[in-house]
Write a structure and sequence with these properties.
Layout: E1 5-10, H1 27-46, E2 52-59, E3 68-77, E4 81-89, E5 95-104
Antiparallel strand pairs: 1-3, 2-5, 3-4, 4-5
Length: about 110
C-alpha cells in the first residue's frame, strides 16, 4: 500500500440496487465506499482508522449494476485533521462520484 493512497473494489450485490426496479446502485453504497476510501487513505499516515468529521459527495452520474472502484488520496494531514479526495468509478471505469472528506487525527 502506498502511503496517502488507497484503492479497493466493492463487489456487486443485489442488495446495493435501488428498490424502484432500476439497475442503479443506491447512493448510500457509493457514499460509504467514498468514506471508507478517504478514511483509509488518511489512516496510512495515522496508523489507525480515523473518525469522519465531514463528507461532501457529488454524484456525477448513476452507477449501474456492477462493482465499484473507490480511490482515495490524502490532500493534507495535519496535527488535528486529515483531508482526503476520493473518486468512485463504476465497473466500466466511468467516474460516477467525487468526494472530499475530513477526518479527526488521533491525539498523541
Amino acid at each position: 500500500m502506498t502511503v496517502g493512497a488507497v484503492e479497493f473494489v466493492v463487489p456487486s450485490r443485489e442488495e446495493f440496487l435501488r428498490t424502484d426496479g432500476s439497475d442503479w446502485l443506491h447512493g448510500g453504497v457509493i457514499s460509504a465506499a467514498a468514506d471508507i476510501a478517504g478514511d483509509y487513505a488518511v489512516a496510512t499516515h495515522a496508523g489507525v482508522e480515523v473518525p469522519t468529521i465531514d463528507l461532501r459527495i457529488d454524484f456525477l452520474r448513476p452507477a449501474r449494476r456492477g462493482s465499484l472502484v473507490a480511490r482515495g488520496t490524502t490532500v493534507r494531514v495535519g496535527r488535528t485533521v486529515g483531508v482526503a479526495d476520493v473518486h468512485v468509478f463504476d465497473e466500466a471505469g466511468t467516474l460516477v462520484a467525487v468526494a472530499r472528506a475530513i477526518y479527526a487525527m488521533p491525539r498523541p
